[in-house]
Amino acid sequence: MQEQQRLRNDEIPCPSCGAPVKRLAVLCMRCGVRVPSSVLNVGMASDAGVPPASDRRQDTREPPVVLALLYACAGGFLGIVAALQAELSGSLFVVAPLILAPVAEEILKPIGVYLLAFKWPGVLRRRWYVASLAALSGLMFAIVESAVYTLVYFPEQGQNYVLYRFTVPLAIHSGASFLFGLGINSNLANWLRGRASLNTSNWPFFVAAIGVHAVYNGTVIALETIESLSS
């Protein structure tokens, strides 16, 4: 006990003799006993204000794959709210499809993934899995959006338009959402909870996803303008 009272911030007590041991040490310099990694993890977590691993078992759980897919698909439907909002912002003309819509839609499309991460933080341990779920959200969003365009907005268009709506936009939306999903990790979850600052490493994925979306929207507007002027 006397040894443990003289511990410094970068030390933990040896589980065998109680002598101070550096946190990154493997062996106790006094008795030569190997320090279990579980002891080191508990010590490091305590200093960081994080509960020991034994108290954070729920953070490693993941939802069943089927449930994760359902959450991702449901989130894609909610992204339609952003698209409708952009459509109603007719007075903004180019600003809405080039700035507001890409930002709002890319943030909202993976809302199902956010819910998954909130309930099962362990899902965030696999970046490519999270990005794939986000891509599925983007795909579902694109399917609903294309159905609205072909059945409500432009039902008089021919098969070529239907073929276009159910190919190119689906690829763009799912690809952009995949990029955005690469930035959805535990750091983002902790930032949303107010527990950490957002790392700059997340931003390139968000900017890339929004950029791809904005370039696509801009290209469509340019082609439609050229076609209307030439007719």
Structural class: mainly alpha
User: Can you tell me the overall shape?
Assistant: elongated
Q: Helices and strands, in N-to-C order?
A: HEEHHHHHHHHHH
Question: How are strands sequenced across the largest beta sheet?
Answer: 1-2
Q: Please give the number of β-strands.
A: 2
What does this structure look like?
The chain is mainly alpha-helical. The chain folds into 2 domains: 2-55, no CATH class; 59-230. Helices cover 62% and strands 3% of the residues. It has 11 helices and 2 strands. It has helices spanning 2-5, 37-47, 65-78, 80-88, 95-108, 111-119, 127-153, 159-165, 168-181, 186-192, 203-230; strands at 11-13, 20-22. A two-stranded antiparallel ribbon has the order 1-2. Helix 4 runs antiparallel to helix 5 (95-108). The radius of gyration is 25 Å and the shape is elongated. The relative contact order is 0.09.
Task: Looking at this protein, list some descriptive labels.
231 residues; mainly alpha; two-stranded antiparallel sheet; 2 strands; disordered N terminus
Helix/strand layout:
Blueprint (H helix, E strand, L loop, with lengths): L1 H4 L5 E3 L6 E3 L14 H11 L17 H14 L1 H9 L6 H14 L2 H9 L7 H27 L5 H7 L2 H14 L4 H7 L10 H28 L1
Antiparallel strand pairs: 1-2
Helix pairs in contact: 3-6, 3-7, 4-5, 5-11, 7-9, 9-11
